[in-house]
Amino acid sequence: MVKRVGKMVGLGNKKNLRERERTDREEAKRMALENGLVRVSSRYPVEETVRRLETAFTDKGMRIFAVIDHSGEAEKVGLKMRATKVVIFGSPKGGTPLMVAAPSLAIDLPLKALVAEDAEGKVSVTYNAPDYLKQRHGVPGDLIKNLAGAGAVIAKAVE
């Protein structure tokens, strides 16, 4: 997980890059513990990030159920907001056993990836931490692995 701030010029100082990566990992862990969300920085614009996520998910056998364009819908009614989309994705084969074991998990499935641009123009992807969902819904530990791989797919898609 690498949060990219501004444009990187060359490889520069590897020590600084490693320090930023470590800081990003610590921030992601803190955020997940506090509110169950994990945020991954993307070096791509919102549209490209969504496209890369869709490709990565389908390449792993997951379905894209919907893409909600919040900013596009806001624009249709004369309102403005920064580029914001939600990709709803998952696998009935992976998710159904989880919902059978913990029916309330259906409120959080299929999984969602929020792709948004902040005030500085930086793009990030935010999703629910599997451990948070495990705690929230009492999902058995042996089944939560069905969700755990999504974070790695997201991180790889936006690196």
Distance between the ends: 8 Å
CATH class descriptor name = Alpha Beta
Sheet having the most strands: 5 strands, antiparallel
What do we call the CATH homologous superfamily? Answer: TT1751-like domain
Q: Report the β-strand fraction as a percent range.
A: 15-25%
Helix and strand content put the structural class at alpha+beta
What would the principal axes of the Cα set say about the shape?
globular
Q: Helical residue percent?
A: 40-55%
Q: Rg from C-alpha positions?
A: 17 Å
Write the layout of secondary structure elements.
Blueprint: H1 14-35, E1 37-42, H2 46-59, E2 63-69, H3 70-76, E3 84-90, H4 92-101, E4 111-117, E5 123-128, H5 130-137, H6 141-158
Antiparallel strand pairs: 1-5, 2-3, 3-4, 4-5
Helix pairs in contact: 2-6, 4-6, 5-6
Summarize the structure.
The protein is of the alpha+beta class and 159 residues long. It has helices at residues 14-35, 46-59, 70-76, 92-101, 130-137, 141-158, and strands spanning 37-42, 63-69, 84-90, 111-117, 123-128. It has one domain (14-158): TATA-Binding Protein (2-Layer Sandwich).
